[in-house]
Specification:
With about 325 residues, the protein is α/β, with parallel strands linked by helices. The strands form three sheets. It has an eight-stranded mixed beta sheet, sandwiched between helices. Strands 2-1-4-5 form a four-stranded antiparallel beta sheet. Helix 3 crosses helix 4 and helix 5 packs parallel to helix 6.
Length: about 325
């Protein structure tokens, strides 16, 4: 009998709105629900401005939710005591998109990595701290001698490795990776992805990987949620999603991935989306994708589709798939 997976993060009807003055609201995340199981990597993909970063940051308490709830290991993160909150900030760490702005240029690498250890009292002496920092640098593929340098002396890929070492320094169990490779040269993106995959296996980490590059998400994620205008429109196992995309938006995103073949582009059926995404401040009635969807019907312009399980383990929010 297969052992039942245990949820680590449960997101229920999460909402995050930003007030813009008067009665205007930007609905960055609007009624999103999903579960992340211990030991898995959950990918969140979508166009810029779809709400994926806001969703991730609200899930770990960086932003206060407008509505809904987030349970971490069965407990509501908004009802944590002061001590529980401090422990939560140790268990849950973030790897940022821009390694140039997320590291303090005034500090040496040693101090950047050791800061979390000091805050959470994880080392008892300077000698132990130094040993830990050097070990972490080796684990992320850097020379221990780099501990005495400043971050401006490093390339973008090296800086991101320092950011990863900083996140790992407090021995977390959950990582939020917010587009950690988008600011890097293509030549080093795969190196960082491989490093994250290796570290997750070695440490048994659970993680959320946010990106707009679907080809990268495919290789690192166990399951993937596709976001559009603050909503998850499709959610499935990674292989299932890429092999059998159901939502027209997902199909369009996947059709845009370049497929090299014998030095030329492979022949694929490109789906060209019309127009730009509507403003999250003034969203269309009904399905939010209806203004760009070639399959849009009268129902799509009037009724918002539910995210429902269309095949086992595969959830889609689209009127093309009727409830039976």
């Amino acid at each position: 009998m297969m052992e039942e997976r245990k949820p680590l993060l449960e997101v229920r009807h999460l909402k995050k709105y930003f007030g813009l003055g008067g009665k205007k609201e930007l609905k960055a995340v609007d009624d999103v629900s999903f579960v992340i199981y211990k030991g898995e990597t959950f990918g969140i993909v979508g166009e810029s401005g779809c709400g994926k970063t806001t969703c991730g940051r609200t899930c770990i308490g960086v932003y206060d939710a407008t509505g809904g709830e987030v349970l971490y290991d069965g407990k509501d993160i908004r009802k944590q005591t002061k001590q529980e909150r401090k422990e939560f900030t140790r268990k849950v760490q973030m790897i940022f998109q821009d390694p140039y702005s997320s590291l303090d240029p005034r500090l040496k690498v040693h101090d950047i990595i050791a800061e979390g250890m000091q805050i959470h009292h994880l080392v008892s002496s300077k000698k132990e701290e130094e040993t830990m920092v050097q070990r972490l640098l080796r684990q992320v593929g850097l020379n221990p001698e780099h501990a005495g340098r400043y971050v401006h002396e490093f390339s973008g890929g090296q800086r991101q490795r320092i950011g990863i070492a900083r996140a790992l320094a407090v021995d977390p169990e959950f990582l939020l990776c917010d587009e950690p490779i988008s600011a890097l040269d293509v030549s080093v993106q795969a190196q960082i992805i491989n490093l994250l995959v290796r570290l997750q296996k070695e440490r048994g980490l659970t993680s959320v990987f946010i990106a707009h590059d679907l080809s990268m998400v495919r290789h690192i994620s166990d399951r993937v949620g596709v976001m559009y205008l603050g909503k998850i429109v499709e959610l499935a196992d990674s292989q299932e999603l890429y092999s059998h995309p159901m939502h027209p938006y997902t199909q369009a995103l996947l059709s845009a991935i370049p497929l090299p073949k014998l030095g030329k582009m492979a022949s694929v059926n490109r789906i060209h989306l019309q127009g730009e995404p509507p403003s999250p401040v003034s969203q269309p009635k009904g399905c939010r994708f209806c203004t760009r969807c070639i399959h849009a019907s009268k129902q799509c312009h009037q009724e918002e589709p539910e995210l429902m399980e269309t095949v086992p383990g595969h959830f889609t929010a689209c009127h093309l798939y009727k409830k039976k």
